[in-house]
Write a structure and sequence with these properties.
The complex is a heterotrimer of chains A (about 260), B (about 325) and C (about 260). Chain A has about 260 residues and is mostly helical. Chain A is built from ten helices and no strands. Chain B contains 17 helices and ten strands. By secondary structure, chain B is α/β, with parallel strands linked by helices. In chain B, helix 2 crosses helix 10 and helix 11 crosses helix 12. Chain C has about 260 residues and is mostly helical. Chain C has one domain (about 45-255): MetI-like (MetI-like fold), CATH 1.10.3720.10. In chain C, about 80% of the residues lie in helices and about 0% in strands. Chain C contains ten helices and no strands. Chain C has helices spanning about 15-35, 50-55, 60-95, 100-110, 115-125, 130-150, 155-165, 170-205, 210-220, 225-255. The chains are: A mainly alpha (about 260), B alpha/beta (about 325), C mainly alpha (about 260). At the A-C interface, helix 1, helix 4, helix 6, helix 8 and helix 9 of A face helix 1, helix 4, helix 5, helix 6 and helix 8 of C.
């Protein structure tokens, strides 16, 4: 399964990406505002976009502080979670006994709705930024582990046999063949994990905090402040998109030989 | 700009007032935390104001306020020692905690009367409590449902004849007439309903009208703290009461502070909330006995409701669960508003 | 494929399963020992034996709740997978709106489903519809991204080869791109199983008429920690069954390839 080489794909598309993104967002903005006005949608279901933007503009400092805080938690959890996931996936790939014994438990760990254990999280990790990063970490590492493992396993056995026949040591086999081959799949998980880590951080903020997008969302929800809900959602999605786009950009640079079409 | 200057000048004045108070413990202030039952809002105004004005520091407590959240149980965090003090759900959650052997005690009660009511629309089918029969009522299934059932039973309506369903966050189903009876806290949901339907178009059914009261927003502390650092409790109460008195005396300045702490809140809602909270905290015996008064009679009626519905497995020793001594060590004049 | 050598059709569980069971038993044993030796109060961590006992005692209620939640999750999962794969395939056939679409989908997805939960409850009500919508929403995105990445894995030379034989877009998709994409689609579907149960539970916590999330929420508020854990155990169990069922299907598919 040799990869098609398309080295220039990553570079020339950047301008287009931005253009299309802006166009897509503008289209949504117009459709949003217009549909509320045209169909007379009640503000409790969907407020006007302009009203939502007004809400953000009236207290910009609060939103800026929340974005900074949530971004820090997300990034910390994401980076550590991604590193741990790749490491764990590689370890599981090399040690089948360990994988068979531990992997089911990691699966189980992902089936636990942590939101039910707010008190435990506070108890173990306190009210710090770190506690929220732990939540982001927890949601990030699992898909990265799974995809790393699957990616490493999907190496063409013929190529593996070929390298072995040349007497390539295990280390070389891993770094020269298996790991590069797994990278595209790892990056799929890394992209997916951007939103998961943001989810983790925001839910973590529900365990008693004063700043952060999760706090804004929660506050607005329980005060039935629909405009506030939308404002928080809008800001969160902007942050998430930026994060996703950054990782996708890195992906195009790193996995240049198999960039998106 | 003017607002900020006002806040600053209030702070300066507070510093002068606080100075003469002697620190209770000498030396460095004791580190402590207060876990709220929810996010910063006017419901907890007095505590925030007391921190801002240095009242806790003057009592020798270095207090951090930790907000609450959904599925975060104050009793649990205080019992495990993660937090020193807590504003917990209410007498109902104190009973449940004691019933489950959580080592916490209540040393003050914020809301003297049930802070939520059942409401129906004046132009809807429910005019009296008898009309609940065959109608859809929504309420929180975390205690309020037993209050509703008790109210119905007292009024001679079989709760089984009412279609009681769990209430979601939004008031929209009620506003749109899909639900006939809705449960509303007087300081929160009621504001939304007032905005969308208008208070004049609502009929209120208060638990107190049927001889039931569930005091809420209870101050709790672990048994360990109560035993090993008993001096902390009156100190905390004194500072908190000063904060609350200031909040009630100058509600505008208080809300200024809240808007500074949580700028995305709606000022109008917070003003409404503080006025309602004042009413709830000064209701019943608190008018004579002062803030955070523990009225044994009110606690007993609440206890009997939850015992009757087997929410708690057996009677709770109320004398051990609710301690008034720290509050009573403060002069009545200093507790009253 | 290495896996082919492992006999899974025999009655004796495979070595993989045995090891998994050993790992699980070690964890549960350590847990039980920790709660007993350290004398942890139930509000910190109840012993496994106590939780199991609670599950047995309340099996009827828990089974009903599990059925409720499982039904929501499964319905949402199927809808989500259909949408995710469908949209990705459409974009593979008609790629021009792809970048804009991916960007917008990512923007929407970057907000936790719990953030949309109040809106979903508003739009779809407190019943099962809001949970199904939430699950479908989250699953479709994960499956969509995985499918898209899978479809991109195709070997350019193979495409060119098929084209030179006069194969159309559809034929290339069906014969070449989809089979190549299968492992990634399957991985996305497998990861989504667990999330679908969690999302159903989380939305139930915010407002529901039944289900495990509803049980958990009530138990937390009534300080019944054993009940919380009992519900969590059941949730984990059905997630695992779900995960392994899809894993089995995946194995069959990859094997077939």
């Amino acid at each position: 399964m040799a990869a098609a080489s398309k080295t220039s794909a990553g570079l020339f598309s950047t301008g287009h990406t931005v253009l299309r993104l802006v166009a897509g967002l503008a289209a949504i903005a117009v459709a949003w505002q217009a549909s509320v006005l045209l169909f007379g949608i009640r503000p409790y279901y969907l407020p006007k976009l302009s009203v939502v933007l007004d809400a953000i503009a009236s207290t910009p400092a609060a939103y800026a502080a929340s974005v900074a805080r949530t971004a820090a938690e997300t990034l910390l959890g994401y980076v550590t979670g991604a590193a741990f996931g790749v490491l764990l996936g590689s370890v599981f790939f090399h040690h089948k006994v360990l994988k068979d014994t531990l992997f089911p438990m990691f699966v189980v760990s992902q089936t636990i709705p942590v939101i039910a254990f707010g008190a435990v999280v506070v108890l173990w990790f306190g009210n710090t930024l770190f506690a929220k990063a732990v939540m982001a970490f927890y949601l990030t590492f699992f898909p990265v582990t799974v995809n790393t493992l699957l990616g490493l396993q999907s190496v063409d056995p013929a190529q593996e046999a070929l390298m072995k026949s040349f007497g390539a040591p295990h280390r070389q086999l891993f770094w020269k063949l298996q790991f590069p081959n797994a990278l595209p799949q790892i990056f799929v998980a890394l992209r997916l994990a951007t939103s998961l880590s943001l989810v983790g951080a925001m839910v973590g903020e529900w365990f008693g905090d004063t700043t952060g997008l999760g706090v804004l969302l929660l506050q607005a929800t329980y005060n039935e402040n629909v405009v506030g809900i939308w404002a928080a959602l809008l800001v969160a999605s902007a942050l998430g998109t930026l994060f996703y786009a950054s990782v996708a950009g890195i992906e195009r640079k790193v996995v240049f030989w198999r960039a998106e079409q | 700009m003017i607002r900020r200057r006002q806040v600053l000048s209030t702070l300066g004045a507070a510093g002068l007032v606080a100075a003469p108070y002697v620190r209770a413990f000498g030396g460095a202030p004791v580190k402590a935390s207060l876990r709220l039952k929810w996010l910063p809002q006017a419901q907890f105004m007095g505590f925030y104001l007391a921190v801002e004005k240095g009242y806790y520091r003057a009592e020798g407590i270095d207090l951090t306020i930790n907000p609450g959240g959904p599925n975060l149980l104050t009793e649990n965090l205080v019992a495990t020692g993660a937090d020193t003090f807590g504003v917990s759900g209410g007498t109902d959650s104190v009973f449940a905690a004691r019933d489950k052997k959580l080592p916490i005690v209540c040393f003050g009660i914020g809301h003297q009367i049930t802070p939520f009511v059942f409401v129906s629309k004046k132009d809807g089918p429910v005019k009296t409590i008898q009309d609940f029969k065959g109608r859809v009522a929504t309420t929180w299934f975390t205690g309020a449902n037993y209050v509703l059932e008790s109210v119905l039973a007292k009024a001679g309506v079989n709760p089984k004849d009412v279609n009681i369903q769990p209430q979601q966050v939004s008031a929209t189903p009620f506003v749109e007439g899909k639900v006939d009876v809705f449960t509303a806290t007087l300081y929160n949901e009621f504001y939304t309903l007032d905005k969308r339907i208008g208070m004049a178009n609502l009929t209120k059914f208060a638990a107190e009208d049927y001889g039931i009261t569930v005091p809420r927003d209870t101050l709790i502390v672990s048994e360990t703290t109560a035993k090993e650092k008993p001096e902390l409790l009156p100190a905390f109460l004194r500072a908190s009461i000063r904060g609350w008195r200031d909040a009630f005396a100058d509600q505008k300045a208080a809300i200024d502070l809240m808007m500074k702490l949580a700028p995305t809140l709606q000022r109008e809602h917070q003003e409404f909330m503080l006025a309602e909270i004042k009413r709830l905290m000064l209701a019943g015996k608190a008018s004579e006995e002062g803030l955070f008064w523990i009225d044994p009679a009110a606690v007993k009626t609440a206890h009997d409701v939850f015992l009757n519905y087997k929410v708690i497995s057996g009677p709770v020793d109320l004398k051990a669960a609710f301690i008034s001594a720290p509050l009573q060590s403060i002069a009545l004049a200093d507790r009253k508003v | 494929m290495k896996r082919r050598t492992i006999a899974t059709r025999t009655i004796v569980p495979s070595r993989e399963v045995q090891r998994g069971i050993i790992g699980g038993l070690m964890l549960l044993g350590g847990w039980e020992a920790a709660t007993r030796l350290l004398e942890l109060p139930t509000y910190v961590l109840p012993p496994v034996s106590g939780i199991v006992q609670a599950i047995v005692e309340r099996r009827a209620a828990l089974a009903a709740a599990a059925g409720y939640t499982g039904g929501e999750a499964l319905a949402g999962y199927l809808i989500g997978c259909t949408i995710g794969i469908g949209v990705a395939v459409l974009l593979a056939l008609f790629p021009w709106p792809r970048r804009g679409f991916v960007s917008v989908a990512t923007a929407i997805n970057s907000v936790p489903v719990v953030g949309y939960a109040p809106l979903l409850l508003l739009w779809f009500g407190t019943g099962i519809e809001s949970k199904i919508a939430a699950v479908a929403f989250a699953v479709s995105f994960v499956v969509f991204i995985s499918t898209l990445a899978g479809l991109d894995r195709v070997d350019r030379r193979a495409v060119d080869l098929m084209r030179s034989f006069g194969a159309g877009k559809l034929a290339i998709l069906w014969r070449l791109r989809l089979p190549t994409a299968l492992p990634l689609i399957a991985a996305g579907m497998r990861v989504s199983t667990v999330r679908s149960i969690i999302i159903a539970i989380v939305v139930e916590m915010l407002g529901a008429y039944g289900g495990l999330g509803w049980v958990i929420y009530q138990a937390v508020m009534q300080i019944d920690f054993v009940q919380v854990w009992a519900a969590i155990f059941v949730a984990s169990a059905i997630s695992l069954v779900f995960f392994n069922l899809i894993g089995l299907a995946e194995w069959k598919l990859v094997f077939w390839r």
